[in-house]
Every structure is written in C-alpha cells, then in structure tokens.
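task queued by scheduler; priority normal; single chain, no ligands, no partner chains; default sampling; output format set to structure tokens
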Amino acid sequence: MRRLLDRAVAASSNGVVITDPKLPDNPIVYVNPAFERISGYTVEETIGRNCRFLQGEERDQPVLEELRAALGEERECRVVLRNYRRDGTPFWNELYVSPVHDDEGRLTNFVGIQNDITERRRIEEVLRESEERFRATFEQAAVGAAQVGIDGRWLRVNRRLCEIVGYSEDELRARTFQEITHPDDLEEDLELTRKMLAGELQTYTLEKRYIRKDGSGVWVNLTVSLVRDASGEPGYFIAVVEDISERKKAEEERDMLLVREQLARAEAVAARRRLALLAAAGPTLSASLDYEETLEGITRLVVPELADWCLLDIVEEDGRVNQLAFVHADPQKENLLRKLLEHRRFGERDPGGVAEVLRTGRSLLLADVSGPILQDRAVSAEQLEVLRELEPRSAMSVPLLARGRILGAITLVSSGPEPRYDEEDLLLAENLAYRCALAVDNARLYRDRSEIARILQRSLLPPHLPEPPGVEVGAEYLPVGEANEVGGDFYDLINTVEDGWVVVIGDARGKGAEAAAVTALVRYTIRAVTLKVDRPSEVLAALNEAMLQQLPEDRFCTVACVRLEPEDGSPGVGLDVSRAGHPPPLVVRPDGSVEEVGCSGRVLGVFPDAELQDTPLRLMPGEALVLYTDGVTEARSPDGEFFGEERLRALLRSCAGLEAGAFASRIKGVVLEFQEGYPRDDLAIVVLRVRG
C-alpha cells in the first residue's frame, strides 16, 4: 500500500511537499519530481529547509498570515503565493496544505500540493487590463477563455475552451453556460452570477464541473469577471476556464489511497470488526426509505458479527411497541425468539431490560447475564424458560434516540462464553442505534412531507377541467423531483365574466415551497382578476403587478393565457392569446400543419412593464390549440439530446384528428418515453380542440 501511494505521488503532475512539524522550523522531508520541475530546486537542495525559502525576499505577503494560522490550527488551507524558482524567476503558486494525523490524532506531517498557476494569472491580468490584449492572446491561450453574455450565452470562445468541453465553436455558441454545467454545480454558479450583476461582486473563482458533449464530466477552475459598459450597466462576462481534471483525479486517488492505508492499519487492531460493521451499516440504512425493511437488514448485519441474536423494537407514533425484527445466528433457534416475543412486556412497571430502556432512554449493559439476573428481569415463568434455552451470557440494550425522542431499542445478546460485552462494545452499539434512529425519523418525516406535498400539489391544480361549449379539453401534468417536492408547472381553466373562458398555463421558478408560493399566488390572482376582466394581456398585467408587490425579486414565472370567446353563431371559436416569456401555443390543423401563435412579452415578477400583447385568431372545427411548458421541449434523452421544437412539431402533426384527451396523453407519453421514463423537469400540457 505504501509503495502504491509513493508511486501515485511521484507520478502526480502537481508538486508535493511534505514537512515535519515535530522537528524545529518545520523542515521539508519529501518533495516529488513535479516539485523539482516547478521550482528548479533538486531534492538535495530542498530537504531540511523551511518552505519559506521559496518566497525570496517577499515574506510580507498577506496570505502568509492565513497560511501560518492554518498551520497553527492544524487545518486545511488554500493560498496563492508569489514564489521564486532557483533561477530567480517568480511564479504564482496555488498551494493546498493539509495536516496528517496518526491513529491517535497526533499531528505527524503537513502535506502541500503545489500548482503553478502563473499562466492562468497572466491570462487573468491580461483580460482585466486590456480588451486589445484579450483579442491578441485570446485564441492561443493555454487555458480556456470566453466572452459570455448576460443571459449566459457563449458569445466568443477560444480553441482551448472548445477542447475542454468537446464542442465546436459553433456548437458552443449555440448554447448557454447553464446548459453545459453539471446540475449539482449550477445553483452555486447562478447565485454568484446574480451577486455579480447586483454589484456585490466584481469577480469570482469557482471549481465546478462541465458536461462535455459526449456526456462525461470535466472539472474546471472557473474565474469570471464582469465588464460594464460606459454607462455602468452590465455588458458581458469574461470567463477563464482551466481544466483541473488531472489535479482532481490526483487528489481523489491520493485521498483514496490514504483511506485505504488507514483502513489497512485499522484491520491490524482489535477495532477492525467494529469499523467494518459501521461501514456496512451506512449503505444498508440508506438503501431504502422503508425503515422497517432497512432495520430488518441491520439485525442481519450485526448477527453474527456483533451478537449471536438480536431484537429490534420500534415505538410507533401511537405509543405502541412494535417488535419489528429478530434474528438468531442459529436458524434452528429462531423459533425460540418467536416464543420470546409472545412473553415480552413493555409497561411502565415491567422489569424487562427493554422496557427499562424505553422508559429512561438510557443504555443498559449486562456484561455477565447470570441466573439471578434472568430471574429478576423475566416477566413470567414461561419467558424465563425460553431465556434459559437461548442461553444469554452477555447483553446490551440501547435506545434509538433521534431529536430528543425515543423511537425504539436494539438488543444485542452474546451466547458464547467469550467475549463479554464492555464499554467499547456499548459505544459501538450506541453509534449504530443512533444511525438507525435517524433512518427511522427521516423515513417518517419523508413520509409525512410526501403526503403534505401530495395534498398541496392537488390544491394548486384544478380538481377537474370543465369543457367550454363546443370545445374538448385535455390536460396532462407530471411533477418531477423528490416525493416531498411540489412542481413549478401549473394550469387552470376558468369560467369568467360574461360567460367567457380563460385558459392559463405556466412555469414558476424552482420547486417545493418556493414554487408553491408562486403557483398559489398566480392561480388565485388570475381567478380573482377574471371576475372583472378577461382580456389575456390585462389578466397577465394584473398578475405581474401582484407578483412585484407580494413576492421577492428572485420569484418569477412564465405564463401563456388564452381567452375563448362565447359562441356567436360563427363557425369555430374565437381566441385571444397573450404570452409572458412562455413557449408559444401551437395550432394543429386537421391536415397536420402546425402554426405558432402569439407575440411574447417578458416573464412576470421581474419587470414593471411586461410588454404584453394580445393575438387574436379563430380556431375552426377539428383544429386544436396546444399549450405546454418547457418540460416538453427541454426534455433530455439519456445521452443528453433535447426533445426540441422540431421533434414536438412532428409529434403534433401525427396527433392531428385525435380527441383532446388522447392528444395530451400522447404528447406526455412520447416525451416520457424519449427520456426512458426518467424525466428531469416538470411538464404540463393543455389541449383545446374545437369539436368537428
């Protein structure tokens, strides 16, 4: 293991320095070949010296205080220093310092990972100092560089950036940085961008992942600066992108090797069995939200590793004790455990050990279970007889405690003469019980929140859709995410003033409580407004005003609103359409032709004037109007391909002539099949079809 670790460190492209804080002046005791290459100093010239010799005369750099504080506090630290090579040339050193402790927690070494970022700093300085220099060095830069619009679209990209993400220049410029950012890293990136646009930041640096064209991930170090125009308004972003995948891989390999080395040492001591048990408990507890199934798995994990037999009891929410699981290392004796369950009691005055643990919330350790102890704790002669057949020699019962509540108890019993349980075994059992308790509590919370979310979701959508005279209505809705989240898409059909009808469909930002707040305001505001007016642009303008007054700045939504005119004796149905940043409704003719409807205004909840307009049209018999959210067109296949507008139009052409309900159902089914049953975004679909 040590040789494997040494080879990995020696092969690293980053400089590695190890110092010994136990010796005077914390001297260097090891450097790898990459350090020699970066600094120009040989191993012989380096060993025994303090790292400060690399600073030359510049020992007053402010970051040195941060570094000294981290070393004194024995914690990890990242600093950027100006260092000097052996030939006197300066270079910028991005230094990651980590303390190393032995098994007893004593500091043994400091490990520094050195990365020469001189080229990156040079590019950053060039980009900040002069747009002209930017143009001169842009294409040939050794790191990725780009000009990014305020909307996130790539405006200009260099060759190196295209190599990093695997797209051609044209392909990349057709996308936004949000589209190629790993979903787990997107929120932090967007938050920093919002702060920059708000004037809270001028530049930021972030380690994140991009999704390459082939679907693989690539780690990058991203530095973003905001360039403002002459009036001080945000103009565009300058992004410098450095591929740090190799460094990340080296760090992960280093961490993995260190973990393996520590585990190898742990296996050499008596605690190996305990560590392995806890390591195995983690995946078991996280495998399912069905805590009963999970805890049954835990009992089979501890037997026979930690106990010859095990009992697990859960206190249900009504106070009843559920004897959830039992297991014996000898399958022939599990019938005895079944008999034991028939005689156990958990009342306030019952003498059993588990009853005592459930009353007090304190663990019980019986290192030696002798005959008198069995007699004292048995609740009946029948139970005492069963216990004697089970032959307990040592036992411990531990409460399942989570957030100050007793959720149950786990009882571990050893039937062999050795070993007897001791305090160390009890600590292990308490650790395991704590994890089990959290699994139970989290599963119950998840179940409760899921039920609340289902109720809330139903309240934010119409329970059923009426059908205006002469018009078929079909609707489909699919929320995506954890079961306790509320989707952000919504729709409604409202009978309005003067016996008209208004159909709305929209997409609120986010999920969960944030989306629910926006959706509730949108739906009930529209219903209130349509009691007085039903012109779509006026309805959406009133909604925009309500959102600006009642919601935070980061809450917004897109909406499409359609008014159906009352029947006037003419063929078909008259419509007025208004859109606020929402995908355009599509008219599907009986011959399969598809047309887009409506001029788009701005999203609601952001601008005082959403620039809304009404587009009139008439829907003739057999024609259908399809309203949808971007969960349809932006659906992705497993290989990252978007469903897209062209594919949607082709699908709509194939649906011409279908009834509205079948029409909406087919769209949902095809989009879901395109994603192989794993949608990534909510979707809502409403189809209005004039009866033929």
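post-processing summary
- Residues 662 and 681 are 22 Å apart (CA to CA).
- Residues 121-247 form a domain with the Beta-Lactamase fold (CATH 3.30.450.20).
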